Sequence to fold (501 residues):
Amino acid sequence: ADSNAAALDKALEALQAFLEKASGTAAGRIAGTCSSNIVAKGLGARPSTAAKGVDCLMALLEVEQADKVTGALVEGYGNKVPKVVVGALDATLQLIRAFGGRVMPAQQILKAMPPLFESKDAKARDKAKEIVAELARWMGPELIRASLFEKMRDAQKEDVEKLLQEAPAGRPKPERLTRKAAANAAEATDAGDEGSGAGVAVTTAGASAAAAEEPEKVDSYEFAEPKDIIPQLTKEFWSALESAKWSERKAALTTLKELASYPKLANGDYADVNREIKKITTKDSNVQVVAEAINCTANIAKGLRKDYKGPAMSLCSVLLEKFKDKSSVVNKAAGEALDAMARYSFTLADVAEDVAAALAHQNPKVKEYSLNWLTGCVMRETKAGVLKLQPLVVPAAVKCTDEGAPSIREAAFNFLVQAVLKAGSLTAMGKGLAKMDEAKRKKLEEMVQEAAKARSRPGAAAATAPSVARQASRNASRPASVSGQRMTAMMGWAIIVGKVH
Fold:
């Protein structure tokens, strides 16, 4: 932590050279002290020195030292020197943009932001807002709102909300990788090259299905800390559920829905909640109340994920039955809840019996809406998961192609097309399609071919960043030992560490 600018520059250069060759263990021994000294003395210095400091922090992140780097940066937010605070915030922003919210501990950084919104330094306030907007790209705006907005003034909320609205959709890609991630990416690339050269035949349907995968979306669940909402359900809440007034019942359910909208829920005792929701869904006479109860199950499924598997499976048949309801509000809520459950809590194979029963239902709406829901689910399912639908679900869908209503026949064919695309070929679905007559089978084959052509676009498959692949090869080839000819230069990092070991 030398005050001499030239010496500090040389020390940072030496540290950078060391980190390019050092093992993770060697870097770990000095990461904490180096990070703290870089933040305190380097980031508030002249621009060229600050840039070298950021480069060193980047290098530390590459060797898996994100926790120590982040700890030093967060400590820097409280520095008495305004230039250091702004420098620490700017470095944080650059590191998040480069490595993403998974490598950088997003929650730790987010928790440190509220005091900075009240900073007397306008530059610090602006940088804090930029960091929040960048974190929103990785964590999702819902988690940002849930974690921060209650601690912010209205004017600040408006500024941040504007930044959240301007953030590009979809999950961002990291610009740089840690060494481990780079090595894994290099291995995956090599495996892909070997596979492509092996002459393995791939069906058009299978290839197009792979090329047509949806872009990955931001999932706030990955970054949120679990929140226990059960203690927040007061006696008034439970009393309101039994109220004779539908508006009071709906208001209580809205409270539950809003509590359950937090991205990640702690797995607690939901037995009473599940029982009341199921009772209201099946027995309440008011469609607004029923729809709100169903909306609660959707949010709970999103927040609990696999921990909600049992209750979700028990509700599946109830929600499929709700497709026959005359109210479009209830139909819509049931579809969204089933979609959330299939996405997060159970697989289609888990509820195959309920689904097959819905496809054989006497009510045409139940058949059509169930098929439409299945079609969306199958597009997200794995090949193995789709193949498990052959014993019960696929034959039931095949029967629906004989229905008198054109909308049901169309929905059945659409589902079967997506199932075949995911399975890879008609042959792979042979058991499920065994009872389909020749004319319908030919029609299905034509529809699959048309869908495959429509979905296969040259270059659509993972044009993942070539720069990341190049870095994967470069980082994976770095030796763990330190080159002897650089040893003298590397002694300069003792200035940063504070003493020579």
